């Protein structure tokens, strides 16, 4: 499934969301490991999508 995500800060905001998901997942490892795995998978999927974007022209 694809989704369109509109963020005021563009890819920088999306990268910040990825970092927040990874940090949050680290805090859930002991108490909610399944949720931590899910959040890491989401972060990886968003990161992969960001990596697939065309590089900006200089």
Structure write-up:
Helix content is 66%, strand content 0%. It is mostly helical and 58 residues long. The N and C termini lie far apart (31 Å).
What average pLDDT do the residues reach? 93
Helix content bin: 55-70%
Supply the helix-strand structural class.
Answer: mainly alpha
Q: Based on CA inertia axes, which overall geometry fits?
A: elongated
Low-confidence stretches: none
Give me the number of helical elements.
2
The separation of the N and C termini measures 31 Å
Strand content: under 5%
Largest sheet: none
**Radius of gyration over all CA atoms, rounded:** 13 Å
Number of DSSP strand runs? 0
- N to C succession of SSEs: HH
Descriptive key words:
about 60 residues, mainly alpha
Write the layout of secondary structure elements.
Layout: H1 11-28, H2 33-52
Helix pairs in contact: 1-2
Summarize the structure.
Helix content is 66%, strand content 0%.
């Amino acid at each position: 499934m694809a989704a369109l995500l509109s963020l005021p800060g563009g890819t920088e905001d999306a990268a910040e969301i990825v970092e927040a998901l990874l940090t949050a997942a680290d805090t859930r490892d002991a108490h909610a490991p399944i949720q931590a795995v899910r959040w890491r998978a989401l972060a990886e999927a968003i990161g992969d999508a960001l990596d697939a974007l065309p590089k900006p022209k200089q």
